[in-house]
Amino acid sequence: MSAHSRVAAITNRIVERSKLSRELYLERLRNAVGKSVVRSSLGCANLAHGFAVCSTAEKEALAGDHVSNLGIITSYNDMLSAHQPFETYPAIIRQAAAEAGGIAQVAGAVPAMCDGVTQGQPGMELSLFSRDLIAMAAGVGLSHNMFDAALYLGVCDKIVPGLTIAALTFGHLPSIFVPAGPMTSGLPNDEKSRVRQLYAEGKVGRAELLEAESKSYHGPGTCTFYGTANSNQMLMEIMGFHMPGSSFINPGTPLREAFTREATKRALAITAQGNEFTPAGEMIDERSIVNGVVGLHATGGSTNHTLHLVAMARAAGIELTWQDIAELSEVVPLLARVYPNGLADVNHFHAAGGMGFLIKELLKHGLVHDDVRTVFGHGLQAYTIDPRLGEDGGIVREPSPEKSVDPKVLANIETPFQANGGLKMLRGNLGKGVIKISAVKPDRHVIEAPAIVFHSQQELQEAFKEGKLNRDFIAVVRFQGPKANGMPELHKLTPPLGVLQDRGFRVALLTDGRMSGASGKVPAAIHVTPEAVDGGPIARIMDGDIIRLDAIAGTLEVLVDAATLADRKPADADLSDNEFGMGRELFAPFRRAVGASDKGASVLFH
Fold it and tell me: 259 — alpha (psi -120 to 50), left (phi > 0) or beta?
C-alpha cells in the first residue's frame, strides 16, 4: 500500500471510530450558531455591562445587529519571552478591526507558565494540568457570549493545546491563532547542550552555565530549538488555524505586525455575518487532525503532542489514538533537521523554505490532505508560500521554492533524512508508551540492560554525582505519571544520561512521566501507562531486572516470566511531598480526576 493510501486508510479509520462522537459534537455546534450577531440574544442589562467601557461610537455599533465583535484571548505576561510580545497586540487588533468595520475586545486572559523556568522544580508539577486550566479560563472569557469570532494569542507548550481545546469547545465561533514568532538566533543549541553536559560532569561552574543559557535564551520570542512551543506553531499552520506563512516570523518586525493585522481582518471576514462563515469546529475535522500528526512526524516534533493531539482531537469529537500516530509515523519521512534532531534552529528552518516548502513537499506525495478548510479558505495548497512584506505594508505571498534553500536543514521529499518520522508506540508486558528516535543514533534503537529503579529524578541525579551509574542500565523513573504528581517533564535527566552514553555505556530511560519536547539522543520510553500509582507493571520492576527496549520492533518488555511478575506486589511510594507547596495543593482535584496518558492525560476527556 502506498504512503498516500496508508494515510487515507488511517484517516478513514479515525472517521469511522469517531462517527458517533463527531456527529453529536457537530449537532451541538450547529445548535449554538446564531442567525445574527451573537450578542443580540443578550438582555439590555447584559449588553450594557458588556460594553460599559466602550466609546460612544462602539456602543452604538455593538447595540445593533450588524457589526461583528472579536474576542481576544491572550496569554500575555512579560516573564515569558514567547508571550511578552503579545503586550501590544490588543491595540493593534483593535485598530485593524476598526479599519475593517468591526470591534475587538479582550475577552479574557489565560495563565501561561514556562517549562524552561520550572524544569526540575515543584512548579513543573502544575505544567501539564495548566493545559486544561487554560481551556477552562478561555471558556470563562468567551462565556459572556459577546463575540462573533475569537483571536487566540498563544505560543508555548501547554498554552496552544489548551487554547485549541477552547477554540473547539466554542466550535461555533470562527477562530484564528495569532503567533508571536521565535526569538532571533543566539548561542547555537549544540553548544548550549555541550556546556550543560560539562556542568553535569562538574567541569564548569554555575557562572559558565548561566552565561551559556543566557546567550541562548536572550530576547523576545520562542526558544529557537524545535521543542513543544515551535511544534505548536507548525501544528497551527498545517492544521489551518494560522494565516499562511505566519508561524516563524520574528517578533517586533513589520512583517510580524502585518500578519497580526491581516489575521484580525480575516477573522471579521469569516464570521456568520460574512459570506465565508468558518466555524472552527466544522473547519477542523479528521483530515485536519491527520495533517497535524503528519506535520509532527515530518519535522521530528515534540513527544508532548502524543498527549496534546489526542486531547485536542477529543474536543472536536474525534477519537485519535497512539496507534494512529505510530502508523502514520511509519509512512511519513523526516524532512527537517532542527535541534535536537540537527544543528539548525527554527530560524534556519524558516530561511530554508519553512512551512510553505514543507507543506508543498508533503502534498507532492499525498501525505497531507489538501481538501480541508482553513482560516484562509479551502485547500492546504494556499499554504505552500513564502511570505514577504509588500510596499504597501501588506503581505505578499510568493510560491515556495522548488528546492530547499538549505538541504542540510530541510529536505525534498525525494531525499528525506530518514524514511519515517521516528515517533513510535511501544507495547509489551510493561504496558504502552512512546519513544522518539529521530535524534537517537541507530545503534541505540535497541537497548537491553538491567534496571535501576528511582522514584524521583533527584534520586537519579544524586546517584550520578556519586559515581554509581557508570555501567549499562535502563533508568526506571516511576511515580511520575499524571495521577502521581502531574506528570512533570524530566528534562533534568538529559545531561547525566547523555554524559553516560558519551562515556560508552548503553543507557536508556523508562518512565511514566514526560520528557521535554527537546528530548534528544538518549533513548527514552516515556508516557508509560498504566502508571505506577495505578499499580501498572512499571511498579513491579525491581533493580537488576533485564529490560528490553526495542524501538525497531516497537516493544517494551521486562524479561521476567509472567507468573513471577504477576505475583510481585506493586511498589508503593510516599507521594506526600507532591501534595503541597508552589500551588500543588490547588491541583489535588486534577490529580484525582485525570485520565490515562494514552487518552491525553486530561481532566476534561477520558
Answer: alpha
Q: What average pLDDT does range 68-88 have in this prediction?
A: 96
Confidence at residue 196, expressed as pLDDT on a 0 to 100 scale: 84
Question: What pLDDT is recorded for position 518?
Answer: 57
d(CA 590, CA 568): 30
Bridge partners of residue 250, in order along the sequence: none
State the burial class of residue 57 (Cβ atoms within 10 Å of its Cβ: 0-12, 13-18, 19+). exposed
Query: Within a domain: residue 483?
Result: yes
Are 495 and 368 part of one and the same domain? no
The verdict on 346 and 438 lying in the same domain is: no
- Predicted pLDDT of residue 116: 85
Q: What is the average pLDDT value for the chain, to the nearest integer?
A: 94
- Containing domain of residue 327, as a range? 3-183+220-399
Strands 546-550 and 555-558: antiparallel
| pTM score, whole prediction | 0.95
Give the DSSP letter string of 401-415.
PSS-S-TTTB--TTS
What's the farthest any 2 CA atoms get from each other in the chain?
Answer: 77
DSSP 535-555: T-GGGG--TT-EEEEETTTTE
pLDDT digits (tens, 9 = 90+) for 389-437: 999 999 999 999 999 999 999 999 999 999 998 888 999 999 999 998 8
pLDDT at 1 over 80: no
Is residue 100 a contact partner of residue 149, using CB atoms and an 8 Å limit? no
SS3 473: strand
Q: Is residue 359 part of a domain?
A: yes
Backbone angles phi, psi at 351, to 5 degrees: -65, -30
| Total structural domains within the chain | 3
Same domain, 101 and 23: yes
| Peptide bond before residue 570 is cis, with ω within 30 degrees of 0 | no
d(CA 391, CA 383): 22
Output the nine-digit C-alpha cell for 258: 502585518
Which residues lie closer than 8 Å to 315 by C-beta, 6 or more apart? 135, 164, 165, 168, 169, 604, 605
The response to whether 114 counts as a known ligand-binding position is: no
Length of the chain equals 606
pLDDT confidence of residue 390: 94
> How does pLDDT run across 14-39, given as a tens digit for each residue?
999 999 999 999 999 999 987 667 78
211/197 same-domain check: yes
Has 156 been labeled as part of a binding site? yes
Burial of residue 198, with CB atoms counted within 10 A of its CB: 0-12 exposed, 13-18 middle, 19 or more buried? middle
End-to-end CA distance of the chain: 33
Same domain, 284 and 389: yes
